[in-house]
Fold these 2 entries.
Entry 1:
Amino acid sequence: MFVDFFVTLRGAGVPVSLMEYLTLLGAVEKGLANESVDDFYYLSRAALVKDERNLDKFDQVFGHCFRGLDMSIEEIFGEIPEEWLKRLAEKTLTEEEKAQIEALGGWDKLMETLKQRLAEQKKRHQGGSKWIGTAGTSPFGAYGYNPEGIRIGQDDNRNNRAVKVWDKREFKNLDDTVEIGTRNIKVALRRLRRFAREGAATELDLPDTIHSTAAQGGLLDIKMVPERHNAVKILLALDVGGSMNPHVRVCEELFSAARTEFKHLQYVYFHNCPYESLWRNNRRRHVEREATWDVLHTYPSDYKLIFVGDASMSPYEIAQPGGSVEHWNEEAGSVWLQRLLSTYPKAVWLNPVREDRWEWTASIQMIRQLMGDRMFPLTLDGLDRAMRALGR
Amino acid sequence: MRFAGTESYVATEDLLVAVNAAITLERPLLIKGEPGTGKTILAHEIAASLGRPLIEWHIKSTTKAQHGLYEYDAVARLRDSQLGDERVHDIRNYIVRGKLWEAFTAEDRPVLLIDEIDKADIEFPNDLLQELDRMEFYVHETKETITAAERPVVVITSNNEKELPDAFLRRCFFHYIRFPDPDTMAAIVQVHYPDIKKLLLREALGAFYEVREVPGLKKKPSTSELLDWIKLLVAEDIPPEALRAKEVKDFLPPLHGALVKNEQDVHQLERLAFLARRERGN
């Protein structure tokens, strides 16, 4: 009963366990679903979803399983096998062909067609001018040439022609399970540790107990103190995608080390420069965005802010409203960066680009200036210097 | 036993299903939602509607799981021994019962409210796993096991300040109280203030949802703030016309102190009102 539903839920990333499934069956057996779809929906939601962040996923899966609603475009994108999109070849087009592609139609039409093609296509594809794949002239896919094209699953920034790309490709979530090589980073991060007594009083405070017992004329008076905890709070903001791809490995290592080192670690992702919204899950970055204001209001100013990014972008992305490559931003990146910095005065920027090359890129200079020169290379030595700067 | 809402509490269909599932299957019910959407009140209403006693356990940052079971007051015993008190010979005199013990041994199947579980230490829910699952615990000092004669209806509320462990979540039913839509909100206000004038209600709700829309508010006003505000409006006999304006930006709603509690939020509202006035002046 409902096994498909259960399996699909798990597939969609809702963490349901066998126990919860059995609970649901038990509830259905007791007649709590009243044999109505609505009640069954409420019942299964209460039994299977334990986090409001998963409600939306649950709704989609439920709709798909029980009412035959179509899977959303988001999930269709999720299903494109990576293999199709591997880079294999590139193609140079003539001017005529470029004109032809431009004539294909407007934005809405592209999206419409893309949806249809995704539904029709079942195999990996390369070349040609219709199917989604690589190195073709179709408006959909990667490594080809189409000024109006939508890029899906392209590994690296191949050229900088696209001013506004609507990137629905799946950014990989930074994996924090990478363990090799993280030890050194952990040691460097350890410099940031600050022990403080906080929380419930659980340890016997011997000197104080002796003191106050003596003060009471020998009647025992036990004094307790809270345990010592690492009280450092970190807000980690990671640049993902685009020009950061060559640095993914080292970022993963940093992230993995930070996860185990700090109890109060919050992380958000941004692309190139922080704007009005950030996200926590790359897979669903276009759906589950969080307003930067909310982040600013959620975490108090005793959090230390660590940016990780190459800061390599077009200067417009920092200085101009509307300069973002991905969307129309009302306020310039520098405004948002300054807001973040005024809320979190203790902040550093870790840059995976080699320090001796920073001068070559104008945007790195700009960010460095905004950060008040607190930019450090993402090397062990740089990390050490950064942690010192944060600890001051 | 079935919960069907009460006269003083408007329960949505999905909430009813979740509550009844938790009652029937004797599992804890975890309630989350924006502050002020009636999470704690729900437990009171369930108890009232079922006609059962309510046992409240309010969690603080210093609360330990053990406090809910029992505490052994060793210090008192030591003191008694120094003073030569007779009570010292029976260890039972120094076992102080906690809320869970009370709930387990209550005559009538009670409703147990564990309020704001996220306030406690991060390990707190894990320490209660076994107790809530099997509804029994062992008292080391007296070597007895306390088992619930009748499993209490357990309602747990959380404000999402800390993530709860998976193992704990798996044992609960979960309901997220969404912020009510205007229709439900009108019904809620009607329940609390039955003689409120229709016109005033409509204007007040309009202004309320507009204040919620104001960008950059640190704490958006919620249901409980709305109810307080309406109480004030009725008490002060504010005419509905005073609430009417095209947009909240044009004016500050009367008695706005009941809606926004944060100084910065009041500033934000005032600033918007000032800007709007200046624009109109031009």
Entry 2:
Amino acid sequence: MEVRENIISILVNNKPDVLARIAGTFSGRGFNIESISANVMMNPAITKIIITTRGNKQTVTKMEKQLHKLVDVLQVDDLTDVDSACGEMILIRIKLTEENKGKVMKAINTYNWRVVSMDPSSCIVEVTGDKELIDDALALLAPLGMDDFTRTGCIVLKRCKS
Amino acid sequence: MQLTGSQILFKILKEENVDTIFGYPGGSVMDIYDELFRQNIKHILVRHEQGAVHAADGYARVSGKVGVCLVTSGPGATNTVTGLANAYMDSIPLVVFTGQVQTWLIGNDAFQEVDITGITRPCTKHNFLVRRIEDVATTIKEAFRIARSGRPGPVLVDLPKDVIQTRIDEAELKYSISLPDKPVIPNAKRCAKALDLLKKAQKPVIISGGGVLLGRASEELRSFARVLNIPVTSTLMGLGTFPASDPLWLGMLGMHGTYYANMAVSYSDLLIAVGVRFDDRVTSNVEAFAPHAQIIHIDIDPASIDKIVKSHLSIVGDCKPALQWFNKEITSGRLSLPAEQIKSWRQQIRQWKEKFPLAYCRSKKIKPQCVIETLWKITNGEAIITTEVGQNQMWTAQFYRFDRPNTFISSGGLGTMGFGLPAAIGAQVACPGKLVVDIAGDGSIQMNIQELATAVQYNIPVKVVILNNNFLGMVRQWQELFFDKRYSHTDMSHAPDFVKLAEAYGATGFRASAPDEVETVLKKGLHTRGPVMMDFEVEPEECVYPMVKSGDPLTEMSLGDSNIVA
């Protein structure tokens, strides 16, 4: 069966040890978490966790069943094949020099990236989009003097069925 | 009136009908023990916290109640880990209370501080660290509910010292819990789908597992199998769910299962697996497991379905209502299996049974199988038997013929040496009037031998049968068969004199050195009051057969001596 990236959305009780339980369930069953994002919902007692993990459909289904067994897990949705909006964000810091400044500015203008901070020696660019778009931005900026970056990992929201 | 955390603990324990605790005191739980001094609740002081958890485990398996332990923080808590993992693997409902350092010290590497909820997260069904006095009652209530609901399991509750000491006004003590505790009724439509498969079956076999015991569905299983004349095998955990004296009984399946159970499963066209999780000791080579069979898998845990073996039809729910549903279909005439349809199958099974029955050779030395067989005879198969792990456990599974549920108490999933003696103590506490025997090896008995003191202190009259071969027998067997007899560190001949040791503890000891002493010593031992340890000097290099080499198909069994009828 095909190994692919899977997106799992989990609603959990907002308790200090829940993330450890979920991470432990993944590692204990031999899975790696590729990306994770967790945020408190409007009801502060509940947290939504979005996890991406590689595996085939069968093994990921087993993983979901194991997650379901955790007492603090309220809901598990596999959104891999579900019609949903998906995106992530990256912040990229670039060291500015006389040589690269022009190229960096050109890239920023071409792709309409948002500049979050700018001073004479460095700038931070924000890119939002799907995984491929972020990967492309990274590939473009890496040789231009990229210093460091932070990326959120995938977040996803199911589209309304109407 | 004001209540301390300790008083709330005992208040809830009473509400949960807990009358026995297995425990060991220490600094962090001194307040609880002080309150216990005033409470009317039985406490069994073990000699090691691991023993407390195994004893509670044995107690739970025999009584059907939740087993309860109380230990201190730090090492007291870490000593429970093996017991928790053992109960988790075998789905045994326990609530284990651990002391913890004061909340303001947590995270400071305080004396006897350990992150026990962190340590036990993967080997408990759930665990709690209670940080506020207001949460004590609710949390303990939840712990019991979680331990026994659905697929049962152990729950740990970590109680910091200051939380236990704090007082709260009884009027302010509000607790309610929202988790469901109803039996999971299986979907009738899915059950109905099974009817067609059942009606067409020509070579049906039932595999009964530990879930049948936990779901208290032995009666339903018996009736289902007997009316339809379906042969029954069981996993190690399922022994006792179906009577070994019934002609439909096939014995245990798997690595050390009977020839005929393994053959029946391998040639079956319909497996009805009830309350099993298809452990690798059961399936061996999964690819080659039951290759001709459609599989109906009934289990309460959805995560067990299709985890190892893909089922053709899965029914998620308590096995009791599931089997009741099928039995109702039978009584109403909608489900039957004509005798003619399975006649040749039953004939085939009879031939397999006659070809290779369970057997062993007699010799001048005591045969371990003979000890168990004799024990079975003189107890009329009515004792509660616990085992340690290894050869002693497998021979017990093969040669003690269990007719009743909850009479075979063994560490199935984790394979914990040292389980048998404390589990026997727990079982005996649950059933004071019954005969409880721990069948042990000379290796494993030494892993929790200290609990003999517990048995003596409370006059818990457990009988220990040591099959003493001066080896770590099962490991030696593998070394003999797969490592050219290189007996690397399995020689156990430097052992204590078990008779003297029993006496040193204040128990009674007996020894048998020759086959003709077996019956006499067993009778003497079983009729002696109080805890007794019987040391049987058995054939040192006896192997357990049949044996399927790990990873081989179940049909490829080494039969060893077992093809020679005694």
